[in-house]
């Protein structure tokens, strides 16, 4: 009872509005409104305006291109510096082992992972707009780079020229192979950076929207499987070739299984121990995140412990465990990438550029939303382009944002890009001063670091259950992205996934939902009649809505659904009318023939009676058959002409964003066909841009005027009722 009273009180307090105005169609509405005067500029004027320079405009462009000039002078040292220092150190101790580990994925010597963890990270401080993402090596991008490097410089081709078992020649083989693969990786960085830079300067940051979240998550999950299988040989200490291209993951697993009997037990024990330690460290960091001032840097601890154990027990010589090997001290002189490789790498560079940008900008948006600031997608493209292209001159391979390091940088108190700069300085100290100390580091330790960092990506398998509940179409995108990337390779898989995602968009616009609307009594609110019991249709009026635009791909289905939903098909009615007219004509013809025959019979009877000298009674022949009377066509017509039970049809254009020439022709055909059967078609809630498109397409003429277009559904309904 109390609940009912509260409900009634709530209804009484509900605000109401009363509006009294004319019924507006577009002709009447446009006649009462005055358009703002707009002075259109010629192309020459537009170019001149865009090229015009002022001190304010130059300053704005400079701040946009170099965001550091805007935020660094306002940097609150007392509030931010301590947090940035702690965050920079925490991120740096992750940056170092991950740089070494991900170089294995990129199929280049470990020192190039350190270069890639320094130059791009430092450059991003000047050009990036995100305060929290950590630029540097990332598993997915490194895996894509490694796939291209192995394809261009396969082990089989290189080993053909080195058949000797001599140790010196074996070392020369590895040096030559690594040098060529490094050239491929560096050229990829240069080319992908140039592509990102050009897209950013041309304001093409929107290209990332074509990589939807289900697509990216399915793609990165498949990449995680690729990465995991590629690290098995390092974990087990077996010697196998590296594969790239379609079915590479299958070939890699088969190669490892074929050499499983040659497993290096010492390498396996070290690797498994590191995996256990890393998992325990991650679990402790997760459970005690609130209590720990900074996360336990388990990765750098594992690297230090692994290096110490390897050096102390001489694992390389005594047990045959593969180690990192030579790490040159100091920085290399800048060198120009191999330009002649560009034609062979162009398509791969496009994929790497777009995937790298998509991952980076998505993480940047997440942190910006969380901390209440904005990022510029186009400037992020420019920043990544500069990081990759400039870094390539210093032997770095393609980089992007690392999810795990970004989370650490944000959670340890990082406030600005200063944290990233400090992490790069830590890597620089290792390169310049103490890099040689990590030469005994077993490769199985780096494999363990890579595998454990895939834990978050493997959790994305849970997306299958999530998308199954929420959206079957997004589930299909995820599955196609995963399966295609897993078996076709990351490059062809990405292309396949993007193509499939676009097909789903076309499918959804081709197969929209169609509804018949009715009014909630005593309101101007219109809802689906099949969904709500209270919603009622007005007699003789049908309101049709499709939740998609009207264009070449769905114009035919729109027309078919309209006829099906309204129950009125003008072609069927016209065909029935023509059939009725033909039957009517046949009946008239038969009636006339019958009348003619009756007349002939009467004349014959008259002649016979005259011959018998019989006279008519009162001037008429009493014996004439009743059927000889004149037959009127109306008296023989027994077929009722087919008619519709509606007189007005309203098309709700609220969801329509655009109409093309095919859609306009279909719309005009609908108006014409329904007019022939006595049904007037009106269009309601047509937006201004759609109106302009219809005008440009010459939709309006003497038969189809703007009087058929109404500002709202209710305006159209009221107009139909007074017709």
TrEMBL record:
Cited NCBIfam families: sulP
Stretches assigned to the STAS domain: 531-720
Pfam family of the protein (one): Sulfate_transp
GO cellular component terms listed in the entry, alphabetical order: membrane
Membrane topology, record value: Multi-pass membrane protein
Upper taxonomic lineage: Eukaryota, Metazoa, Chordata, Craniata, Vertebrata
UniProtKB keywords: Membrane, Transmembrane, Transmembrane helix
Name of this chain's protein: Prestin
InterPro entries reported in the protein's UniProt record: S04_transporter_CS, SLC26A/SulP_dom, SLC26A/SulP_fam, STAS_dom, STAS_dom_sf
Subcellular location: Membrane
One Gene Ontology term of the molecular function aspect: secondary active sulfate transmembrane transporter activity
The organism of origin for this protein: Buceros rhinoceros silvestris
Transmembrane segments: 104-127, 133-150, 184-211, 249-280, 292-313, 341-361, 418-438, 475-507
